[in-house]
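Changelog-adjacent note: as of this version, every example in the card shows the full chain rather than a window. The one below runs 109 residues end to end.
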Amino acid sequence: MKCTEVEINEMYLQEDLSTNILLRWSKLLEYDFFRLYSQHLILYAPPSASIRESTVSKLPRFRKNIYTREMIDFIMELIEKQEKTKRQITDEYRIPYTTLCKWVAKNNK
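Full-length structure tokens:
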């Protein structure tokens, strides 16, 4: 990083860092700090607008699993500790109820 110890300590105290510095820290510590941000965006994103049929491309659409293992574990922990009900989780995080039930079923095995 070519920094002194004082400069590194100042980085810890800063409220925000540039993405360039954060990328260096991610590589140095072998930890993806950007994943935290992207997971937060996924959990708290506003509902997407419906896509009109006329604007849909002719290319095939593939479903993506947008829920990472960490997110599923976090939500399962909320249910196990009874901090939130299934209905509260589906309302707050906009996760489909059937998806949540499948997670609970897999987790209880």
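Structural remarks: The helical segments are 5-13, 19-29, 33-44, 69-80, 86-93, 97-107.
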